[in-house]
Amino acid sequence: MSEENEHNDDPLSHFNEEEKYHIEQMMIDRAYENSYKLITKKSTFEDLMDAKSVYDSKDKSIEFRSILIYDPSEGWDDIHLEDLIDYFEETEEYEKCAELKKILDSYV
User: Fold this and answer.
1) Packed helices 78-90 and 94-107: angle between N→C axes, nearest 10 degrees
2) Where in the chain are the domains?
3) DSSP string of 3-51?
4) Which of 37, 50, 56, 104 could form a disulfide with 43 if both were Cys (CB 3.0 to 4.6 A apart)?
5) Which is higher by pLDDT, 27 or 61?
6) pTM of the entire structure?
């Protein structure tokens, strides 16, 4: 495959580096939030798959479906719970941390 074709296959190719960074951050945030919602049963997998996230910047936008921090076909484990707790500690969402800690304590 030529370099030009590879560039055209990249859905982020028309965004500048700053925009790409914001999109990647948005995707990371969404993956943690979606994983939290599934693990705590606040949402179903089907509902998450129906939802879309959109990043708009001037005359450009990108839409993506729900993503998770784990492979849904394999399920989550204690490592994923610990990652979620660490993430929500960083974002200072301590209620989510407490909820995930209860699940972690009953999981182990």
Assistant:
1) 160
2) 3-107
3) HHHHHHH-TTTTS-HHHHHHHHHHHHHHHHHHHHHHHTTSS-HHHHHH-
4) 37
5) 27
6) 0.82
Q: How far apart are CA 85 and CA 44, in angstroms?
A: 20
Show the tokens assigned to 50.
């129906």
The CB density around residue 14, as the number of other CB atoms within 10 Å, is 13
CA gap 73, 22 in Å, rounded: 28
At residue 8, the pLDDT reads 58
| Tokens 């879309």 found at | 52
Place of tokens 């990043």: 55
Query: Residue 93 is which amino acid?
Result: E
pLDDT in tens, 30-82: 999 999 999 999 999 999 888 877 777 777 777 777 889 999 999 999 999 99
89-97: average pLDDT: 98
